[in-house]
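Structure in, sequence out. Go:
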């Protein structure tokens, strides 16, 4: 029995029976064990964070906004954001370290020679991050996009023959035809003096045109 149990019973105005004393002692021990477990988890987290920071010191890092936000918001989805990202790639030609807040590091790879080892590595060496992929699992399931390990290997092995270059080669002509239609439409818009163009809509129509021709052999002229 814990000496603190009697004080807890007095605080709760409960009768100091043997059963109550044992119950309060058990609850206090469980709370102490839980607190110790949380403390160990916290120490383990800080240790992994320290080791991770030491491993990432080999990557150059742009100036952060501050310690709390890291590099959040420094590159926006605007024209100015694309220009700043281009400047970032020009300055850090191979790679750089990017922080999403104080705890989440991301290594951004720019040069093909830096990206090549990652693309050629096995899925066991480069697992998919659950933070970026986990929220899609309830909608998409564990298919090729979200699966890992041996399951990913099975799916990839089944799909590889369908995307072999010799199978896709006959469709290149169709892709070129759809792209030429889109370019001709752009030229007409430029000659007509159109000041702007919604490129996402045009690319979507070009993709739809290519899919209808390749999958269904149907010429819908949807781009026109």
């Amino acid at each position: 029995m814990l000496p603190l149990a009697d004080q807890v019973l007095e605080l709760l105005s409960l009768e100091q029976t043997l059963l109550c004393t044992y119950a309060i002692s058990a609850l206090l021990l469980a709370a102490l064990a839980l607190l110790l477990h949380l403390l160990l988890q916290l120490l383990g987290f800080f240790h992994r964070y320290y080791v991770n920071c030491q491993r990432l010191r080999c990557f150059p890092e742009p100036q952060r906004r501050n310690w709390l936000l890291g590099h959040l918001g420094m590159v926006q989805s605007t024209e100015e954001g694309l220009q700043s990202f281009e400047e970032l790639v020009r300055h850090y030609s191979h790679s750089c370290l990017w922080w999403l807040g104080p705890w989440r590091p991301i290594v951004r790879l720019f040069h093909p020679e830096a990206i090549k080892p990652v693309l050629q590595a096995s899925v066991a060496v480069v697992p998919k991050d659950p933070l970026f992929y986990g929220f899609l699992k309830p909608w998409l399931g564990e298919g090729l996009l979200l699966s890992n390990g041996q399951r990913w290997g099975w799916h990839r092995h089944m799909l590889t023959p369908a995307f072999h270059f010799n199978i896709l080669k006959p469709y290149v002509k169709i892709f070129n035809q759809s792209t030429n239609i889109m370019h001709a439409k752009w030229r007409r818009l430029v000659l007509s003096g159109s000041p702007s163009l919604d490129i996402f809509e045009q690319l979507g129509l070009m993709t739809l045109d290519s899919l209808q021709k390749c999958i269904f052999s149907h010429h819908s002229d949807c781009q026109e």
